[in-house]
């Protein structure tokens, strides 16, 4: 079957299982025009080798100023003034500004520091499962765990004080989802934006008065010393709060769904917990929460993988399609806990490789290890086809995860 031009990337069937479409696109070529639900068209790169080259291509910039009028007309980006105030974070910067801003956050997420915090993360995970009633034989793991654990971890890592962490609303994370100007949900979307801006202003004021030694206090100091503008400070806090925890929530759900689809792998991990680091990498390769990257743009018309791409058109990489490229990963649709074909692209590649990768890896190891160990007999409580996949354009995960299990195991019962 020939592919439409552009290829539509939306709808419940696509979000439930995009991989058959990605396979067809890879077979047809490395780059295709695609259509998003907002009406914006883009160029999507699908193969692993092409994805790596694209993510490291110095001709492609992330700054929205590079987008052309066609992109701006339908991109459903944030309205002003919020776009100028919240969208100048790391993901939308190019060197040398990107380099300087990234240096402000890398120490906070250094692998050694994250490993030192692992026992604290374990305490948090156990506390959430302790709250499940002893007589329970099921739960929604998004509501009682996956939506809460990453934010608790993030708050600890960046120095968000408890009184402010308690007031964070998960709904604010929805502001990264495209909502076009004519969409009936636009007023509610803009209200969420204003609420989130007010919350960020409270964080800045609190950390200016009580800086502490956390990342948030250091970012506020960088603003006061002239290393950041106010808009860059607010944008970086926005990125931390939204991109720093929701993708981990989604990755927990995709990993659990795939483990419950493969109960032999789940039981092997329960019996061999030392396999967990490798399992996390394979689960991210198989089904990444970062399905697509954010926009990139060419400053001039140029050839990209044999196709002429106009300046200012948006270029996006499908990390999920790249991670299932059979030319890179043999039998790519199979969950293989012994796979040794090298790294996946779930955290990106090049200068925009996720600075929080070490934290995310440890979070996933702790989360999955704790759930598998403490919830014996873990299985889906609804048919697989009834799972509700989030409609987000760039992300992949389930909005709910109803599971059944035997009686929860106390932490002190650990071997």
Automatic annotation (TrEMBL):
Keywords: Heme, Iron, Metal-binding, Monooxygenase, Oxidoreductase. One of its GO terms (molecular function) is oxidoreductase activity, acting on paired donors, with incorporation or reduction of molecular oxygen. Gene3D superfamilies: Cytochrome P450. The keyword Glycoprotein does not apply. Belongs to the cytochrome P450 family. This is Cytochrome P450. It comes from Streptomyces olivoverticillatus.
């Amino acid at each position: 079957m020939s592919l439409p031009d552009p290829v539509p990337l939306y709808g419940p069937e696509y979000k439930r299982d995009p991989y058959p479409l990605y396979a067809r696109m890879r077979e047809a070529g490395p780059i295709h025009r695609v259509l998003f639900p907002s009406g914006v068209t883009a160029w999507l790169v699908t193969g692993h080798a092409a994805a790596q080259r694209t993510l490291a291509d110095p001709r492609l910039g992330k700054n929205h100023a590079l987008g052309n009028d066609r992109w701006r007309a339908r991109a459903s980006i944030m309205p002003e003034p919020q776009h100028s105030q919240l969208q100048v974070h790391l993901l939308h910067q190019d060197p040398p500004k990107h380099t300087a801003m990234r240096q402000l956050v890398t120490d906070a997420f250094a692998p050694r520091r994250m490993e030192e915090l692992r026992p604290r993360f374990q305490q948090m995970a156990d506390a959430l499962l302790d709250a499940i009633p002893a007589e329970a034989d099921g739960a929604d793991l998004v509501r009682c765990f996956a939506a809460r654990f990453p934010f608790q971890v993030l708050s600890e890592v960046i120095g968000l004080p408890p009184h402010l962490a308690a007031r964070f609303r998960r709904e604010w994370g929805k502001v990264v989802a495209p909502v076009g100007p004519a969409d009936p949900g636009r007023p509610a979307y803009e209200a969420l934006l204003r609420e989130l801006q007010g919350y960020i202003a409270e964080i800045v004021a609190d950390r200016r008065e009580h800086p502490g030694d956390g990342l948030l206090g250091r970012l506020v100091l960088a603003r006061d010393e002239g290393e950041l503008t106010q808009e860059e400070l607010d944008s970086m806090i926005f990125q931390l709060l939204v991109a720093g925890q929701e993708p981990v929530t989604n990755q927990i759900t995709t990993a659990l769904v795939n483990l419950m689809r493969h109960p032999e792998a789940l039981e092997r991990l329960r019996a061999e917990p030392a396999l967990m680091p490798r399992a996390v990498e394979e689960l991210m390769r198989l089904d990444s929460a970062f399905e697509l990257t954010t926009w990139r743009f060419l400053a001039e018309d140029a050839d990209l993988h044999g196709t002429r791409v106009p300046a200012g058109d948006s270029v996006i990489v499908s990390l999920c399609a790249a991670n299932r490229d059979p030319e890179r990963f043999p039998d790519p649709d199979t969950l293989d806990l012994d796979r040794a074909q090298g790294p996946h692209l779930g955290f990106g590649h090049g200068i925009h490789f996720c600075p929080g990768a070490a934290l995310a890896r440890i979070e996933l190891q702790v989360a999955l290890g704790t759930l598998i160990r403490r919830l014996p007999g873990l299985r889906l409580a609804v048919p697989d086809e009834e799972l509700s996949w989030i409609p987000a354009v760039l992300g992949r995960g389930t909005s709910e995860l109803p599971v059944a299990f035997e009686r929860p195991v106390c932490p002190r019962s650990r071997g």
